[in-house]
Specification:
By secondary structure, the chain is of the alpha+beta class. The protein is built from 9 helices and 22 strands. Helix 2 packs antiparallel against helix 3 and helix 5 crosses helix 6. The strands form 4 sheets. Strands 5-2-3-4-16-15-14-9 form an 8-stranded antiparallel sheet, with helices on both faces. The longest helix has 14 residues.
Amino acid sequence: MGKLNKRAPEKEQTKKDKFQGEQGSVVKRSEFIEALSAVTVGTGGQMLLEGSLNVVLDDKWMRTYNDFLSVSYPFPSGIRSAVNHEDLMKILNRMEDEELMLQTDEEAPLVIRGEYVKVELPSSDVRIMKYIDDLSLEDLDWQELPEKFMEGLWWCFFSASRKKEEKNHSIFCTGTDMVSTDNYRVGVYNLEAETEPFLISASNAMALLKTGFHFERSVIVNGWIHFEGETGVVVSSRLLDEETYDAPKVKGVVDAALEELDKHAYTFPDKFEDVLSRIAVFASSNEVFSELVDVTFSGSEIICEGRKEAGKIKERIPVKEKYPKIEFKIPIFFVRDILKITRKFNTSGNFIIFRTPNFTQLILTIGD
């Protein structure tokens, strides 16, 4: 489909000339799309709340909300309206004007004007605006997050349960550590600093990571934790009940495992990443960053397997080092990243452990 608003071959006009005499806010289309992309993770959700597919232009913010997560991105528009997020993105991607005027009137909550085009978006479910109003970002007492917060969130995400109905579909910040488990894996990350304890869902943790922003401050208010990042973006996550999560018990599993370890550290071979890239084609998963590969260490070889409905693949890696017989499943994204830091692991036979200066990952092996 072609672009909307094909310009006539006239000399380029200034922002002031183009919309002279018009009442509204002038914005750059590229910045409009950037803001709209930034708040995308706040749309939809597990249960479609009325209006959760909308985006709200809220004076100096652009916002989305789905009852579990909300994203607010600085975007001065001087307008307050709610329209369908997907429709708005499609329209903006098909327009050619870089400078647009935003207006509102009784007929349409949002009017977008270019030099030769006028788009009127119909009113969508405005109940979402009440939920956003209740989630005020004004006059909050922000606290600095530990410098390693985002790194800890990334590493602990891999150990959290992917089953959203389970209590372990979560990441717990104890104040000094981040902890997660799915009963087969345990991740503990030392933050090297203190922050206020909180428990959030793994889905919301992934939403934070997917935004691509680095979050530097946080504040807990009325059952929500707000994370503020670069450019002023704010991601708000509904808190889970900390009393349902036994962090000392989870950390205790790792502490006990460390005492049982074979002191000898085994090494992943250099060619392992090349094999992994081929296995990844058939890795099993329904979720991003969760693709699993089966790995078996046995004597003088390593066997990697991937399987899904489309097919399966198995590859053997001959090695000089003698390994104990161990078999485990591991997320591909995790092993790719951990091998950039350490190629070593320890085992007791019942589990393997990866360790970095701040992070410990325990993975249960698969019994015979």
